[in-house]
Amino acid sequence: MVGQTVATLRRSVDEETPRRLVHAAGSVLPLLYLLDAATWAQVRALFVAGSLGAGVLEVLRLSVGLDWRIYDRLTRGYEQDNVAGYAYYMFSTTAVVLAFEPRIAIPSVLMLTIGDPISGIAGSGELRRVKRPAALAAMFCTSVALAAPFLSRTPLAVALGALAATVADGVKPTVEATWPRPTGRGLRFACRRDGIAAASETPVRERCDNLHRPGGTQSN
To answer: Residue 130 forms beta bridges with which residues?
Structure first.
C-alpha cells in the first residue's frame, strides 16, 4: 500500500513538474518591469502578444490539429478536446495587466505564477475538489508574501487578495456529467473531465471504469 502510494506520488511529480515550471516562467514578464528592463507599456504588449499567440495555437490545435510532443507534456487528458490551461493562464494574466496598475497587477500575476506551483507541491499533486489545508495555507502565505511589498500600507487589501487567490486556486467547481447520447469520444471526454465528481456517483463511475477497462464498451 505504501509502495503504491509512493509510486503514485512520484508519477504525479514527474507529470506536474513541467507544468509548474511553465507557471513559474510567467514571472519573467513582471520581473522585467521590476528590474527596469522594460516599461509597463512594453510589458503589457508582451502579455497581449502572448495571449494572441496562445489563442492562435489553440485554434490550430483544436481545429486543424497540432501533433506536437510538448502538448503531451504540458496538457492534461481532458484538455485534448478543450481549450488548454496555458491559454486561460495567458488570457487571465493579460486581462489583469491591462486593467490594473503595476502595484496591483504584478502581485496578482505572481500569485498565479508562483503561488499555484507552491500550493501544488504542498498538495502533493492530488486532484481534489478542495485542496488539503496544507496546500491552502501554502497558497495564502505565499500570496501574502508576494503582495505585501507592493501594498504594505493596505494590509486589508493584502489579506483579501491572498484570500481570493487561495479560494480560486484551492476550490474547484464541480462539473456535472450528462449522458444524453453517449458516443465514444464524448464519453471519454466526460470521464477525463469529471473524474473527481464522477468518483462519488456510481453510475457515472461505472461507465468510466468500463470504458477504460481492456475490451470495455459503453453502457447505455
So the answer is: 171
